[in-house]
Specification:
Elements: E1 3-8, H1 16-29, E2 33-37, H2 40-46, E3 49-52, H3 79-91, E4 96-101, H4 103-114, E5 119-123, H5 139-160, E6 163-168, H6 175-183, E7 188-190, H7 198-211, E8 217-222, H8 228-239, E9 243-247, H9 259-277, E10 283-288, E11 291-296, H10 297-302, H11 309-318
Parallel strand pairs: 1-2, 1-4, 4-5, 5-10, 6-8, 6-9, 7-8
Antiparallel strand pairs: 2-3, 10-11
Length: 320
Amino acid sequence: MKKIGVLTSGGDAPGMNAAIRSVVRMGLSNGMEVLAIRKGYTGLLQGLFEPMDARSVSDILHRGGTILQSSRCLEFREEAGVKKGVEMARKAGLEGIVVIGGDGSFRGARDLSLMGMPTVGIPGTIDNDIGCTDLTIGFDTALDTVKDAIDKIRDTAQSHERCSVIEVMGRGAGYIAAYVAIACGAEAAIIPEQPFDFETDIIKPIIDGKKRGKENNLIVVAEGVGGSVEMAEHIEKVTGIETRATVLGHIQRGGSPTVNDRMLASRMGIHAVKLLKQGIGNRIVAIKNNDIVDYDILEGLDMKKMMPGDIMNMAKILSL
């Protein structure tokens, strides 16, 4: 291939800019032209293409979000929209595309590939919910952001002997909640993947901790479970402990990516360009046991990612 494009789609994640940089510079080093496609699949349909050189991606490695911007494009879910996207790409001379995003973005990448435009997906989502990869770009940074926020909230909870209910992102996956519950010493992590009993899993640990002289409590809830405000009200009513709920929201998406996310994004970007250089599309780049690998998009999307049992067991043991 001599000319490729790169776009970011769906929710933004720290490290996407590092992946863009990697794709552009790897492409240029292989004698390719690289076009930025702005505003995701919407930009593909509108022809928002821009030539990139090595300097175009200077000074973006440390920035959160995506310099190419992103969008959710309903038109691209229809066959006519995908067909138009292929036509616009070919009109611009593109022979392949790199898509950085989550599972919804990969379905678009699959459709482009099936219509004759080789496309490779790079997993960028803070939820870490792509089944075929151990880690997604942005997850490590989001954990660090949540950890900092919880540590600050715990300071005031300690001062007033309060219980804090913290709602973190994770609509269908509880990886952020489970990991930070361990890292921040929470009494419980409430996640979509695992049913919970309010009295056994929340109230009892709080009361037991109070009896042992614990001066503050922490419950971490994934947004897929939700109800953090109601949960806080019920805890206060049952235990008599002053309880506050905090929904961290979109601060989890922003911020400068960690070294781990920058490295992961850089490695995945290089691998994506290697695939396109060989004319290979319809693949998802992934990391398995610290090796960069790739899977057929359909195969990758069908893989189910299960919360490791030892993670939740560890959270319970360490909360004693």
